[in-house]
Amino acid sequence: MSFSAIIVAAGTGSRAGGPKQWRPLGGRPVLRWSAEALLSAGASELVVVVAPGSESLAEEALAGLAGWSAVAGAATRAASVQAGLAALGAGAEARVLIHDAARPFLEAATIERVLAALETHEAALPVLPVADSLRRGADGVMGEPVSRDGLWLAQTPQGFRLGAIRAAYAAWPDESPPTDDVEVARAAGRTVAMVPGDPRLMKLTWPEDFAMAEALLPRRTRVGQGFDAHRWGPGSSVWLCGVEIAHDQTLIGHSDADAGLHALTDAILGAMGDGDIGDHFPPSDPQWKGASSDRFLSHAVERLRARGGRLVNVDVTLICERPKVKPHRQAMRERLAALLSLPLDAVSVKATTTEAMGFTGRGEGLAAQAIATVDLPA
Ligand code: MG
To answer: How far is the CA of 266 from the centre of ligand 1 (A)?
Structure first.
């Protein structure tokens, strides 16, 4: 079922505290959710209407997707839609879906219901029944009730035949902007079929809607593990889990040789399938010589956040005969909790000896193991 599509993304987001179409949601810009849904449902052409001068933001948000183009919108939503309609190359009988970027959770089933209704109707609107009681009210005081009978919540994408909706917009009087596209079609005498919408297709309107949308995202838990070891050498202190401990030796390495932070960085990268610390900070690169290892850890956490991920908990085990770790454990946990923005009970640091066996037992080096649990958008 071939169809054309328009996403209106020219809003300023005055109620949401800024343009919401570019904001990340689950690691992807809000606009990208709808674009991916429409393209994977088979849209043969997709026009994204953006505020004049915002074309590069669309390029960035939709990088790697094929089959779309951006056009500049105008001061009103209606004028922006008309710019999108003008940019479509399909014939007058082609089906066109017009969708608001602020509704990111667009499912294939909703698209199919709207397209299917266009086989028998001139236009189609996804709707939800009104569940809550309705009341008028003003200045914080309730007025008379409003019957829910015959009332529906209107969503997008709204479906049309391209020639018909262009003609309907051309006939709409300029002085009073329509609230949506089906209103324009209805005013032009077109019959608008109502099809079931989707409660998840909520419109992101207020700043707090983003928190609700994030909570709706399906997520999956991933676990990563890391291991590191460094050799003891002459020195007077050692860095372990971001804490400097006075000691009669130090760990030798290209950076500060904090094996605890290195193992933990690898655990977080491992949970994301994002390579290892050597890929991101090659030892051959002189800029990491003597570097404080909390930079490596912060980098892994930033990469996790960029994908919409969250750390759940971390657990580090230090393996050595000396120095005694226990007196510094609380400071290490507090340092890690601060670096990772985790509560203290989600950060564990443990220590063990190997009973004088192996390289750690002979005092040749110190080893560290770490596990990180993360939570990523599915
Ligand atoms: Mg290391």
So the answer is: 10
Residues 129 and 239 grouped into a single domain:
no
pLDDT tier at 183 (50, 70, 90 boundaries)?
A: very high
Compute, in angstroms, the gap from residue 257 CA to the centroid of ligand 1: 5
What pLDDT score does 288 carry? Answer: 82
CA nearest 210: which of 20, 43, 348, 63?
20
Question: How many angstroms does the Cα of residue 342 sit away from the middle of ligand 1?
Answer: 23
Reported as a single tens digit per residue, the pLDDT across 80-103 is 999 999 999 999 999 999 999 999
The answer on 248 and 156 residing in a single domain is no
Residue ranges with strand state E in 119-218: 123-129, 134-138, 141-146, 152-154, 158-161, 192-196
Mean pLDDT for the stretch of residues 49-54: 94
Domain that holds residue 295: 219-377
Query: Which of 199, 216, 233 is at the close of a domain?
Result: 216
Question: What's the CA gap between 15 and 12, in Å, rounded?
Answer: 9
Convert the pLDDT of each residue in 52-74 to its tens digit: 999 999 999 999 999 999 999 99
The answer to whether residue 30 scores a pLDDT higher than 70 is yes
Asked whether residue 192 falls in the same domain as residue 45, the answer is: yes
> Ligand 1 centre from 230 Cα, in Å?
6
CATH of the domain at 293: 3.30.1330.50
How far is the centre of ligand 1, averaged over its atoms, from the C-alpha of 348 (Å)?
Answer: 19
Quick check: pTM over 0.90?
Answer: no
Ligand 1 centroid distance, CA of 369 (Å)? 11
